[in-house]
Amino acid sequence: MKIAVIGTGYVGLVSGVCFAHKGNQVMCVDQDRNKIAFLNEGHVPIHEPGLQELMKECMERSLIHFTTDLKNAVQFADLIMIAVGTPPLPSGEADLSFIENVACELAKSMNGHKIIVIKSTVPVGTNHRIQRLIAHLSPFQFQIASVPEFLREGSAVKDTLLPDRVIIGVEDEHTGYTLKELYSPYSEQIMITDIRSAEMIKYASNAFLATKISFINEIANICEKVGADVTQVSKGMGLDNRIGAAFLNAGIGYGGSCFPKDTQALIQIAGNENYNFKLLKAVVEVNNDQRFGIIRKIEQAIGKISGKCIAIWGLAFKPNTDDVRESPAIDIVRTLIQLGGTIKVYDPIAMRNFKKVLDAPSITWCESSLEAVDQADAVCLLTEWEEFRKMDLSTVFARMKSGILIDGRNLFTPEQADAAGLEYYSIGRVVNQSSLRA
Ligand code: UGA
After folding, report:
1. Are residues 357 and 280 both part of a single domain?
2. Does 314 share its domain with 385?
3. Does the chain have fewer CB atoms within 10 Å around its N or its C terminus?
4. Substitution candidate for ligand 1 out of 153, 294, 326 with most atoms within 8 A of CB
5. How far apart, in whole angstroms, are the C-alpha atoms of residue 50 and residue 63?
6. Which of 10, 258, 325 for mutating ligand 1's site (highest number of atoms within 8 Å of CB)?
7. Are residues 211 and 82 in the same domain?
8. What's the average model confidence in pLDDT over 256-276?
């Protein structure tokens, strides 16, 4: 199939490359000239495992091209996929200006029948709004479809090539059939539904996953008070198929470009219909509080933060990505600085992006995990990178001024920390060095 993908962010680029990988002819469009030049040189502007290799392979087979010429791409394609951003407005609502601008340009460029797929996460009703906009500007026939995206950053290629399910929202059987054909090499679990339900499935899925995280974080906070171990609780709960083990890892809360934005947007979507989404509001509130719990743990461990040196391991909102958008680390490092601490940070790949968001004279940017802990009063783990899991904790202890490890992601076990001599604080587990020895 001939496909034009508009927008070369995470979703657009990964979708385009994966369509090309399956033998489709793909043109990826972006208005950012530098980005397109970079892509045309074979470089990938985001850190995403496997993407560079797959893109190179598709370029060598001439199955993918990158351009700023939207008109040419639209005229080339049978299917046009819109994958531009819908960032949050100050009200929490999704900003639809990018998608509307693309729709206008696309409409004016059409030269015949097209299927137009909206991949961007958009409030219920947006597909129909875009449909009216295009119909107003173009004399040509077209069908609109909502195919929401469920890929995760850090495993985007894998999630796109092997998705748990594909949701296709359409108005007519024929478009549903064509899209089912397109997606059948990826998944056997393809659900065809109406457009509004497809739009809602995306928000509801992200809101539900966010709810699971906030739920387990509250259970963790209660575990600390009653002496239970949240990792055991999650494991026990997850054994029930109705609950499932995924997304029950307690920690410092969710971040990233999706959950914070989509939960706010769904609250707003409900609010616009005079519906007070009480549960989701609480999920957001719990998540905002959770990141500050770690500050209280640091204070509990080392006393006043003023004048102390704290090492931070991990800045990305999760491992395997250099993305720091809405990362809990931003609020945590900012608060530590406000409280008078000096901070030594290390992240395998996210330091450059973090520095753009938060830089201060009291931050030292370190080149390794060990450099960060040198003479530190405490080390605080905020992202569960594999590199940290493999650390020799005895060496860490030897390099520190006082051996205190605050594990915001429960990456280590109390036993590992104890064996290395470290005083250990984690999430939802009361055990620390002294209580272990008692
Ligand atoms: C999320 C969804 O998982 C994807 O299905 C969806 O396509 C995407 O949003 C989107 O809407 O585009 P992503 O934001 O890449 O994907 O990351 P996740 O792996 O879902 O993690 C989100 C946050 O939750 C991270 O900060 C992570 O550390 C946190 N998390 C996750 C926990 O705190 N505990 C868990 O058990 C799982």
Report:
1. no
2. yes
3. C
4. 153
5. 17
6. 258
7. no
8. 95
- pLDDT tens sequence across 279-338: 999 999 999 999 999 999 999 999 999 999 999 999 999 999 999 999 999 999 999 999
Cα–Cα distance measured from residue 405 to residue 311, given in angstroms and rounded to the nearest whole number: 9
Give the separation between CA 28 and CA 19, rounded to whole angstroms.
11
From 18, 58, 223, 258, active-site residue: 258
d(CA 111, CA 163): 33
Q: Which residues of 47-58 are buried (b: 16+ CB within 10 A; e: fewer)?
A: bbeebbebbeeb
**Residues paired with residue 46 on neighbouring β-strands, in sequence order:** none
Helix runs in 184-246, H state only: 195-226, 230-238
Q: Residue 278 is part of a domain; what is its CATH number?
A: 1.10.1040.10
- 114: domain range? 2-193
What number does the ligand 1 atom closest to the CA of 323 have? 15
* Residues 75 and 184 reside in one and the same domain: yes
Judge if the beta carbon of residue 414 lies within 6 A of ligand 1.
Answer: no
pTM: 0.94
Q: Are residues 351 and 280 in the same domain?
A: no
Q: Helices 195-226 and 278-302 sit at what angle, rounded to 10 degrees?
A: 40
The answer to whether 258 is a known catalytic residue is yes
- Residue 128 neighbours by CB under 8 Å, 6+ apart: 144, 195, 196
Q: Which residue's CA is minimally distant from atom 2 of ligand 1?
A: 152
Residue 73 clears pLDDT 60, i.e. is over it: yes
255 pLDDT more than 60: yes
CB 256 less than 6 A from any atom of ligand 1: yes
Establish whether residue 201 lines the binding site of ligand 1, counting it when its CB lies within 6 angstroms of any ligand atom.
no
Boundary residue ending a domain (255, 289, 323): 289
Chain centre to alpha carbon of residue 283: 17
| d(CA 152, ligand 1 centre) in Å | 6
Nearest-atom number in ligand 1 for the CA of 409 is 33
Judge residue 316's burial from the number of C-beta atoms within 10 Å of its C-beta, 0-12 exposed, 13-18 middle, 19 or more buried.
buried
Q: What are phi and psi of 66, to 5 degrees?
A: -120, 135
Q: Are residues 285 and 332 in the same domain?
A: no
Cβ–ligand 1 distance for 10 under 6 Å, the answer no
How far apart are the CA of 242 and the centre of ligand 1, in A?
20
Nearest one of 48, 49, 28, 25 to 39, comparing CA atoms: 28
